Description:
By secondary structure, the protein is α/β, with parallel strands linked by helices. The protein has 2 domains: about 1-55, no CATH class; about 55-180, TIM Barrel. It is about 40% helix and about 20% strand. The protein is built from 6 helices and 7 strands, in the order αβββαβαββαβαα. A hairpin with a 4-residue loop joins strand 1 and strand 2 (about 35-40). Helix 2 packs across helix 3 (about 80-100). The relative contact order is 0.11.
Amino acid sequence: MDAPFGKRGLATDEYLQIFKLLWTSDVTEFHGETYEFSNIAFFPKPVQRPNGIPIWIGGHTKRAVRRTVKYGDTWHPTRLRPDQIENMLPFIDQQCEEYDRKRDEITISLKRTLHFTDIGIDTNSRIRSKAALIDSTHTVVEDIKHCENLGIKNLTFDFQTNKTEECIKTMEHLMDTEHRIN
């Protein structure tokens, strides 16, 4: 990002501010600690109105949540358990109040490893985080319902296999269990 390592967070924040300025102004300027410019035009503008392209912020820390509320649209942590997301909800609400955002303006998306233990695919115990969802179909369905109840709108999964046919089997099984989730 052309910024010293110690200022990477500041540089990221400034990049996000710059994107929004370029997406919403015809000619703009920016004077920050890591970047500075004036008389810059950016065209074509994003088709998403009024604020431009939705910004997803990754990370599992309070800093990532703050950045999401201040500059972004979606908080996308990886490898967290639903209870860790639940523990962060009061901080999200506090940040929304501080930055004059409505809670429903912030989407929560969570990425985890998924493995059904009851469909005949061996688990790869080398690829496991504490937040991995590795269990029976019933338990996976209950976990997904819990995520929905917490307000997690998007779930993305990776799988404990690198075999295409096993990935397809896992996705088809998840698709077939959708009626249990809804």
